[in-house]
Design a protein that fits this description.
- There is one protein chain.
- With 466 residues, the chain is α/β, with parallel strands linked by helices.
- It folds into three domains: 169 residues, Rossmann fold, CATH 3.40.50.2000; 65 residues, no CATH class; 178 residues, Glycogen Phosphorylase B (Rossmann fold).
- Helices cover 45% and strands 14% of the residues.
- A seven-stranded parallel sheet has the order 3-2-1-4-5-6-7. Strands 10-9-8-11-12-13 form a six-stranded parallel sheet, sandwiched between helices.
- α5 packs across α6 and α8 runs antiparallel to α9.
- The radius of gyration is 24 Å and the shape is globular.
Length: 466
């Protein structure tokens, strides 16, 4: 079977998280062939492939969210009545007529300028503006609308390869492209959400300074339309745990389409990893993450600094890539310098298995997560966790009644004091660390990687046979 995976902002240019999952999924299914469609910002953006593409990856395509009019027709084209009604439903309606929109972009390489700078677009925008936003500056409104839809139209003008099945790793732009593929080629569509894209974008927009207050709802509503599209066209929609399924249903996904498939690891891969040297007098805390704002490394550093003052034996190892957001990495390093925080090591990209066994416990300070694979990896190495209460972290740490006991400590998001106290509690009680580590190990055996990928293999077979 030829499977087209559609991924936004991740594989193969970003490591960890969804990207690691994609790599393992492809490697676990040598009987299938994969085409990768990856959505990136622009053609000019510098990118480096971070994974060795498996032999069963046939093609890698880049779709650009900011493509301008590269290689497209400059001919202006007026919308016919059917097209105008469809675009009006997309811009300003509730029930979007997606199929005429798909057909519009299938016909030819449309100039984006000819669409979003057209008289048709201006008329539609003015009508909606007069009805709902007439107290605001019209130029701000029209440019907001263009900013929302330019990325979507940019990727929709790209030529989607034909496949036997389309598998999107999110809703959003990727979900719309997958839906377009299903409509164009009449092939099944699978959506897999590791986090709930619509909720994540909603949280970002609410916090964003670049979106004026009056326009936040406008942005949020458009992203909800994108998820509505993906959920409507999808044959199945997977997520990692029950809490996320509830969110999917809340955002309009029919519950009969939903399937819970958690993350998984192979605990045997961690049986013979290097362990802590008996001469090492430090209490090593490991943070396996990409150094980016979503991981809230600054709160972790502040918590560690407080704990270090009370227990000088602590040492923090930040294990993960430093190239995704260099400015943030530098801010974190400057923070270590200015606060004179001792014994902090930024390793950069490493083989986690070479380090994880040498840690006494692990920490995750994220602002948002789905079901962190790194927690399962820590459990496989018999390591307890201090983690923020995001995604399914609480379920993984406390077990949802599985009887294995606590595998760490869950603290509130951005709570430096609570995180520091949790670090100290684990640092000062080796017996508790061992007990929690063993609870985590017993729990991770329920998340066997082979069973997880076998479930996806069965879904591929089911959908591909339709």
């Amino acid at each position: 079977m030829k499977i087209c995976m559609i991924i936004e902002g991740a594989y193969p240019y970003v490591t960890g998280g969804v990207s690691s999952w994609v790599q393992q999924e492809i490697l676990s299914m040598p009987e299938h062939e994969f085409i990768i469609v990856t959505l990136v910002t622009s053609r000019e953006e510098k990118r480096e492939i971070k994974y060795k593409l498996p032999d069963n990856v046939l093609e890698l395509h880049e779709f650009y969210l900011q493509e301008e009019d590269y290689g497209r027709s400059s001919r202006r084209k007026h919308l016919d009545k059917n097209e105008r009604e469809a675009f009006q439903s997309l811009f300003f309606g509730k029930d979007v007529k997606w199929e005429p929109v798909f057909e519009y972009f299938m016909k030819e390489k449309i100039s984006l300028d000819s669409l979003i700078m057209s008289e048709d677009f201006l008329k539609m925008a003015r009508e909606y503006y007069c009805a709902h936003f007439d107290r605001l500056v019209f130029s701000d409104f029209i440019w907001t609308m263009r900013s929302i839809y330019f990325p979507l139209f940019s990727v929709m003008t790209s030529k989607l390869p034909e496949a036997d099945l389309y598998h999107c790793l999110s809703t959003g732009y990727a979900g719309v492209i997958g839906s377009m593929g299903k409509y164009l080629f009449h092939k099944p569509l699978l959506i897999s959400e590791h986090g709930i894209y619509t909720r994540e974008r909603e949280e970002e927009i609410i916090k964003a300074n670049w979106v004026m207050g009056a326009y936040k709802d406008l942005w949020i509503n458009q992203f909800r339309k994108f998820s509505d599209c993906a959920y409507y066209y999808a044959d199945k929609v997977t997520c990692l745990y029950e809490g996320n399924r509830e969110l999917q249903v809340e955002f309009g996904c029919p519950i009969e389409k939903t399937v819970i498939i958690p993350n998984g690891v192979d605990a045997k891969e961690y049986e013979n990893i290097p362990q802590k040297d008996t001469n090492d007098s430090y209490i090593n805390i490991g943070a396996i993450l990409r150094v980016t704002p979503i991981k809230d490394v600054k709160t972790m550093l502040s918590a560690y600094a407080m704990a270090k003052e009370k227990n000088p034996k602590l040492k923090l190892w930040i294990l993960g890539p430093l190239d995704e957001m260099p400015e943030y990495v530098q801010e974190c390093k400057d923070m270590v310098t200015y606060m004179k925080i001792e014994d902090v090591v930024f390793t950069g990209q490493v083989n986690v298995k070479e380090y994880i066994g040498k840690m006494d416990f692990l920490v995750l300070s994220s602002l948002s997560e789905g079901q962190p694979l790194v927690i399962l990896e820590g459990f496989a190495a018999h390591k307890p966790f201090v983690t923020t209460n995001v995604g399914d972290c609480k379920g993984l740490i406390y077990g949802n009644g599985d009887g294995f006991g606590e595998a760490g400590i869950v603290v509130p998001v951005m709570n430096t004091t609570k995180m520091s106290e949790a670090m100290l509690l684990l640092a000062e009680r080796e017996d508790r660390r061992i007990m929690m580590g063993e609870a985590g190990y017993r729990r991770v055996l329920l998340y066997d990687k082979k069973k997880i990928y076998d479930t996806y293999r069965e879904i591929y077979a089911e959908l591909g046979g339709k």
